[in-house]
Amino acid sequence: MPDMLTPSKWVQSYADSLFGFAIARTGDRDIARDLVQETFLSALENRRTFRGESSERTWLFSILKNKIIDHYRRKGSERTVSVSGDAENADESYFFDEVGHWKSTLLPTDWGSAPEEARSSEFLETLQKCLSRLTAQCRGVFTLKYIDEMESDEICKELAISPSNYWVIIHRAKLLLRNCLEKNWLNA
Amino acid sequence: MSQGSHRKLFITCQEATYLISKDEVWATGLLDKLKLAVHLMICEFCRRFSKQTKIIERQARHLTPEARLSEEEKGLMEEAIKTKENGLQ
Ligand SMILES: [Zn+2]
Asked: Which of A23, A50, A77 is the last residue of a domain?
């Protein structure tokens, strides 16, 4: 079988786009770089499985996607270290008082005409930063669901989490992201 | 109707935001939808939460960071690939 792969050109042709994809999903530069490197190496190991049905690019991306899912799974609920020590590491009860009402200091404020401005690059930049502050598991679930638009039941299966746990994580991610955007984008 | 089950029609903001987050047709039952609708009528904060998290969901699709690897990092990757290729031959 003729080899349709050109490993000597991989870095030049695909490293940046694979890296961009990985960093959007892990929020961590070093981890993203390592995952890209691992992708190239396991692609080499498995080059015989490449059938040429998809492009070289698509094939490399599918390997990277699996690496990212492995990464989320490995990290589980492990929490990222927060320097500021506030909301980033909080779970959902952080936002509510004993009777389940919003804490007076964390009430969602009116974003005004924000929906129209939301596409602005500042909004997306802040969203990216906020996403990178979530725990690996929280970030993983949110990313697979809303950036990769994967189905919820598929995400549960891939990450080996129960549906109820899944919704708790989604709830937490949205509380944290909304609050982080309000503090760092709206009131910047 | 007991007082307990009556009170259950009124949910807390914590429960309401959970149901808002779980916004998928198959995932929430009719009763939960009703409870949420009642809550949203009386709570502007959860209405904001709902509106704003939908913006976040929509915008998440446009995330394309401009991150790039340095030439040095790329060089190291190329080295690693070469080494591995030679090792496999
Ligand atoms: Zn409420």
From this structure: A77
